[in-house]
Design brief:
14% of the residues lie in helices and 34% in strands. With 247 residues, it is of the alpha+beta class.
């Protein structure tokens, strides 16, 4: 996953809105989001066994992105796909971010991560050595790619963040305000938010997620239509569905 946008609005009916595009090698096998782990729903990377984005039953969402120049696995390094699973399994975002912050960054290739719930959000950076850095995210819109949040020097952020700021926020389950923005393939190669397939690489999926009175996840794989993803139920007797009450 190469781009995440997070809109934090404490006190709003939908205090957390998240949009994400996953950019990856086209030949890397993956399964669409599903309940592949107890209490968690996420996309499953068949190669590493982890996830690029996961949501836990307690309402914690976690995403991981490669940092600049660190695409792909490396011998002797753990799979970064483990990180969203560890964070999303926490009872709240603060403890999920703290779980990542307790790790040795040297065990993984460099990564960026976002951990959030209805009340808080965190940016987590592993730079390939030393401690993992955890930074609280302010209210409002945050855009993250392969460097640091809202980096004006990143061509993708410089081109697309103003468009998201200018657009009216979505009103879930109506995501039309952001669907078109996520599909924007304009600009140069480093500016494109939705990367067309080229040289075996491209944007392979998109996600729109809301946390509020219910949890909603809308997902689109490359070449397919948008669809709702059932999220884990907070009680064994409850029925799963595209909108699941949060604890």
């Amino acid at each position: 996953m190469c781009t995440v946008l997070l809109l934090r609005r404490p006190g709003h009916a939908w205090p957390l809105l998240l949009a994400a595009n996953r950019d990856e090698r086209l030949d890397r096998p993956a399964d669409p989001p599903g309940p592949y782990w107890p209490g968690l729903t996420g996309g499953r990377d068949r190669l590493g066994g982890g996830s690029w984005m996961a949501v836990g039953v307690a309402g914690v969402v976690a995403c991981v992105l490669n940092r600049e120049g660190s695409l792909g696995p490396s011998p002797g390094k753990a799979s970064r796909g483990r990180l969203p699973l560890l964070a999303a399994a926490a009872p709240d975002a603060a403890r999920g971010a703290a779980a990542l912050g307790a790790l040795d960054a040297g065990a993984w290739r460099p990564f960026n991560a976002v951990v959030a719930d209805r009340g808080s959000g965190f940016f987590v950076a592993g730079l390939g050595q030393g401690p993992v850095r955890v930074t609280p995210l302010a209210e409002g819109l945050t855009m993250l790619a392969t460097t640091f949040p809202d980096d004006p020097g990143h061509p993708r952020i410089a081109r697309h963040r103003p468009a998201f700021l200018a657009a009216p926020p979505p009103e879930p389950p109506d995501w039309s305000a952001w669907e078109g923005l996520l599909a924007d393939a304009g600009g140069g190669p480093r500016e494109q938010l939705c990367i067309p397939p080229r040289d075996g690489f491209g944007t392979v999926s998109a996600s729109l997620l809301a946390l509020g009175p219910v949890a909603l996840w809308r997902y689109r794989a490359q070449g397919q239509d948008w669809r709702d993803i059932p999220l884990p139920s907070p009680a064994p007797a409850a029925c799963g569905g595209p909108a699941t009450p949060l604890l």
